[in-house]
Amino acid sequence: MANLANTVDMTDAIDATGTADMADAAGLTNPANVAVRNLTIRLGANTVIENLDLDVRAGEFVVLLGPSGCGKSTLLHSIAGLIDVSDGSIEIAGEDMTWADPKDRRIALVFQSYALYPTMSVERNLSFALRINGTPKAEIARRVARAAEMLQLGPLLKRKPAQLSGGQRQRVAIGRAIVREADVFLFDEPLSNLDAKLRTELRRELKQLHQRLGATMIYVTHDQVEAMTLATRMAVMRGGVIQQFGTPAEVYARPDNLFVATFLGSPAMNLLKGTMETRDGAVYFCTPQWRLEVSAYPFKHAPAQALPCVLGVRAEDVKVGAGLSERAKVSLVEPMGNHRVIWLDYHGVQVASIDQTKTPVALADTVAFSFDSEQVSLFDEAGGERL
């Protein structure tokens, strides 16, 4: 298949398709579903993805989230047709595209690099694929004008990439995808080269763009903030396996395993080891120092006897204040502007609390705190799965 290093040529191989009949003057009309079935990808002796299933509904914004090397970009590139699959199938709009050429998949891809032609103006970069495809001039003008208006590129159309900022170049790269009016838009970490302020601005623009287009979008990132703010559903990946797939709220509040629990959240979910026990008809999480009743916890499989487990609680569900049940020494205070993170040394375990009060707290103070028992997560200690 194609050399991934040659991103400009590959982008145009994908872009150069006839799509005028897919959309009318009002914009995109054909968002497509994507179905990945039993997908396996081997690169040399390494199995990067094995027996993976993924269903993306038409019009969704699905984010593939995970650490470097987890297979998220490989999955995206296989959907785009840039990587040969070893087994399984890929369907777009109900049509088997497993072995279709990239140009026949009705997709548009935005790479991490901008993939712009340096000698062409913004206008010619936007229109290049349409011109080589023989799209009528009036249709090219309509699409370019529409993309430029959406992305606020109008004043920049005559400039060349060297005369643009990083954020402007990325908007042009996104505009190249928009003029395609494709069935599925694929984004491979498009904001990772930008500074924090530009990432925030473009993240907002991407979300608004999705709302206006109603298009199917699949987006790869290792940034949990991008995933949480952009996704209608997100797939958290590790080692080529989807660990959990759901809405950001579901994945954050009810992680399926310890990896998801600790990968999402800043600071990460607090974890404490103990046992699950039943006493006098009530269920408790117990450690040698304390116990917390969790009778209302929605167990997947309620333990019949004492079970080694891990209690997880988000920092915002650890309350600090007078009159609460537990006591610990403050080991660190991190001011964050509209809140602060108070780190507590609790029997040798560091517990983070997100606190929005203005109560004076100093290093080495002993403070009272408690866990919100209705917001905890419980995991099997051996396998790490949610109980």
From TrEMBL:
Keywords: ATP-binding, Cell inner membrane, Cell membrane, Membrane, Nucleotide-binding, Sugar transport, Transport. Residues 34-264 form the ABC transporter domain. GO terms for molecular function: ABC-type transporter activity; ATP binding; ATP hydrolysis activity. PROSITE patterns: ABC_TRANSPORTER_1, ABC_TRANSPORTER_2. The keyword ATP-binding applies. InterPro entries: AAA+_ATPase, ABC_transporter-like_ATP-bd, ABC_transporter-like_CS, ABC_transpr_MalK-like, ABC_transpr_MalK/UgpC-like, Mo/tungstate-bd_C_term_dom, NA-bd_OB-fold, OB_MalK-like. It comes from the Bacteria. One of its GO terms (biological process) is carbohydrate transport. SUPFAM superfamilies: MOP-like, P-loop containing nucleoside triphosphate hydrolases. GO terms for cellular component: ATP-binding cassette (ABC) transporter complex, substrate-binding subunit-containing. This is Multiple sugar transport system ATP-binding protein. It comes from Paraburkholderia bryophila.
